[in-house]
Design a protein that fits this description.
It is a single chain. The protein is α+β, with helices and mostly antiparallel strands and about 190 residues long. The protein has helices at about 1-10, 10-35, 95-100, and strands spanning about 40, 50, 55-60, 65-70, 80-85, 110-125, 125-135, 140-150, 155-165, 180-189. Helix content is about 20%, strand content about 45%. Strands 1-4-5-6-7-8-9-10 form an 8-stranded antiparallel β-barrel. Strand 7 and strand 8 (about 140-150) form a beta hairpin. The chain is elongated, with a radius of gyration of 25 Å.
Length: about 190
């Protein structure tokens, strides 16, 4: 019935135009229904990864990877990043070399530390990301509480967590077993 009515009142050119408009409207509607996940780029020179033990503290650089984070759909969020062990900076050249040595991080064999998320959840005014932290040849599941604040196309992740270095085969004496790690990560779209 619809085609008969259309054939009677609309010439062929108008039918094609009508079909094109209908197709475009349908595509736009579908596009709006599909949620776009925000991919965040690490602002290379602005982030801070700080670590502290009883006897040593410093920073690391060389952070790279992929951050997909959507506050409205945490199930589809994902983080896969690595940091370069060779960038460790304690402020003391000898400590840097000891940290990179075969007896500790073994940066020649294991030049990167990896983190890959497995789950996100809301927690109070912030979030918790659970994921796998790989240092050397050991991978352990950890949780990192963090906050995220965004303003248009920029944002910032901030988080703090603690690991026991002996869990990862980092067995040097006199350094302090527990390592507190603070991350401040500005990002942009």
């Amino acid at each position: 019935m619809y085609n008969c009515l259309l054939n009677q009142i609309v010439p062929d050119t108008m039918k094609k135009l009508f079909t094109l408009v209908l197709t475009i409207l349908t595509s736009v509607s579908l596009a709006l229904a599909i949620h776009v996940y925000t991919s965040w780029k690490i602002m290379e020179d602005d982030y801070v990864i700080r670590f502290k033990t009883d006897k040593a503290n410093g920073t690391m650089k060389g952070l790279e990877g992929q951050i997909l984070f959507d506050e409205q759909n945490l199930d589809k969020s994902n983080i896969k990043v690595s940091v370069d062990v060779n960038t460790i900076a304690t402020g003391i050249w000898l400590k840097n070399n000891h940290a990179k040595a075969k007896s500790f991080f073994d940066s020649e064999s294991y030049p990167k530390i990896y983190f890959s998320s497995t789950h996100f959840q809301k927690s109070g005014s912030g979030y918790i990301v659970e994921g796998d932290l790989k240092i050397k040849d050991t991978t352990k599941r950890i949780q990192i509480p963090f906050s995220f604040h965004s303003n248009q196309n920029k944002g910032e992740f901030s988080g703090s967590f603690q690991i026991n270095r002996t869990d990862y085969g980092l067995l040097k004496n006199g350094v302090g077993e527990l390592v507190n790690i603070d991350i401040k990560l500005p990002v942009s779209q």
